[in-house]
Specification:
This protein is of the alpha/beta class and about 200 residues long. The chain has 6 helices and 8 strands. Helix 2 (about 45-55) packs parallel to helix 4 and helix 3 (about 65-75) crosses helix 4.
């Protein structure tokens, strides 16, 4: 997919997230209560959407919890002959991509091509924009997405809208971030009933 969310530096910063109908990123059981997302994440449409948004990216941004969860699962999928081919392709991309991890507690990272950020998300993105490369994608880390939105450093939102009302849990947004306008550039339905949406920021 060719990036269309033009930014002066030429690198598109994408925030990828799954949301419930009422905008939640987790259920009432806490931040790891995501069982309601799983049936939609493994649908054919969602898998294809994930490949579409990640393939152009050469840098992935991860919070500590997602880094630890991803690194404990995805590396072995890359060579798992019994896994879905699209999952293998995603896992191979994830192993190879440069991964920048935001954490106050980790002292080091042992996943190949990963490193700890030395600054906050907005400052890190501004530094990355000055370097050559493809898209920069935030993988499911709500706090990083919120930070980049507030700083005006997010160019594209990739949202998998799940037809679920979890009955509680954290939302992506409460009050804020600062106002902005977005243009719908892609809408794809999935067999699970989820909708994969791409919005590009309208910059004046």
């Amino acid at each position: 997919m060719t990036s269309t969310a033009n930014h002066p530096t030429g690198r598109t910063v994408v925030g990828n997230i799954s949301l419930s109908l009422d905008g939640r990123v987790a259920g009432p059981g806490g931040e790891y209560d995501m069982s309601w997302i799983v049936p939609h994440a493994v649908s054919d449409g969602a898998r294809e959407h994930m490949l579409k948004v990640t393939t152009p990216a050469t840098t992935a941004l991860l919070g500590r919890k997602n880094y630890q969860g991803f690194s404990s699962f995805w590396p072995s999928v890359a060579d798992d002959s019994e896994a879905d081919p699209r999952d293998r392709k995603f896992a191979q991309w994830l192993n190879a991509v440069d991964k920048v991890v935001f954490s106050r507690s980790l002292q080091n990272t042992d996943w190949e091509n990963s490193s700890l950020a030395s600054a906050g998300p907005a400052a890190t993105v501004r530094h990355l924009r000055a370097q050559a490369g493809g898209d920069i994608i935030v993988l499911a880390s709500a706090s990083i997405i919120r930070d980049l939105l507030e700083a005006g450093e997010l160019d594209r939102l990739s949202i998998t809208l799940c037809p679920e009302l979890p009955g509680g849990g954290a939302r992506l947004f409460s009050d804020g971030p600062s106002g902005s306008s977005w243009s719908l550039t892609s809408l794809t339905g999935t067999e699970s009933g989820a909708i994969c949406l791409l919005y590009d920021r309208i910059r004046g």
